[in-house]
Amino acid sequence: MYRRILVAIEHSAADRAILDHVEQLATLTGAELVLVHVADGWAARHFTNLKLRESEEIQDDRVYLESLCSELQGKGLRVESRLLMGDPSTELAKAVDTEHADLLAMATHGHRFLQDLMKGTTVDRVRHLVTVPVVLVRYQEQKS
């Protein structure tokens, strides 16, 4: 069914929603997971052009990705990670191709109307750029 699943990682609480889902899917199908986080912001978008050093935020993203990989590998899954830099929509779409993914998995926050306009929606842009199936798992914040 699926051999290589690209998983968009936000470095937020929403990651748990998509990771729980793809962990089960990978276990059922034997698929390999490729965790991808796209660092965004001025430094990340100009990292290569200006030959910048990794910021603390980018270093933190790398450590976070490595910890997720280790956690999933500890459960017997085949997992790789990629830290990319730039526009999240564009970089995720490129990664689907370069990583030869046959499924893209992402968490969604379920914003509506004004929040989508203010915050933008990576999910909406990405789904128009990729040719593989996209699995969206809605993250619901736990209210205390």
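(the above was protein one; protein two follows)
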Amino acid sequence: MKIENIEELEKRVDLAIKAVAADVHYAESLGVLTDIREEMELYDFDENKDHLSMGLHEADGAYPMHPEVAKLLIDIYEDGIENESADAMCDLGSLYYTGRAGEQNYEKAAYYYDMADKAGNRQATENMGYIYYYGRIGQRDYEKAFKYFVKGALDGHLRSLYKVGDFYKNGYYVEKDPKEAFRIYEHCTNTMTDEAAPLVGADVYMRMGDCFYEGFGVEKDLMIAQRFMSSAENMFYTRLAEGDFYQKRNLEHVLDVLAKIRKEIHEELLPDLSWAGYND
């Protein structure tokens, strides 16, 4: 439903506040809604819609969106798309990709991501890479995925860059090249900002840990591998707690590799201290 003016937006926000206040799972959403409602007169119509979309999109990420919040956000994004907002196109696509707004639909996600990519949104470019990498709308297409990830990497997206590294690690579309894969992962590690670390740090550190554990593109080093994997473990716990359910498999992988690393460290690196009564 199109939101025509500030008065209609106020009514929609009031309706959402009343709905989410009755459910203890949506404290973050309630906080965003009430704070913006109290300060609505300080900003214009479009600014208030921007504040709502930015605040509500990730709020209460461990749960599906409250239906009233989902309806409000979808209407805001559809209004933005009418005004040719590439961010609104990408954000609406992400709601359909994750299903948090009540409907998981990869076809719709790809439709809006493609629209946003053509409008210059590089997050959408990266997301299109995942659409083809995992075959969300049909067969996997590593050639298309690679080209989208390269495009995103050239625009400074570290997630796109480490995915390019994955292609060289696995030999997808390009020739397998362990040294090039490690070089890319290491570059991600060295250029990652404090702002980017909560978003991509776990993924990068997991890949670095794998390389040092396997001796893939770099000399095997169990101690360095353990440090990277331990950092990745902590970061994955945080992301899962925030509702990023796609990281469950990555966390399981990290825990499995950490167990192997610790076993090898114990068997291969620790000295025999039985002479000192260590085993008594």
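Reviewer note on protein two: The chain is about 70% helix and 0% strand.
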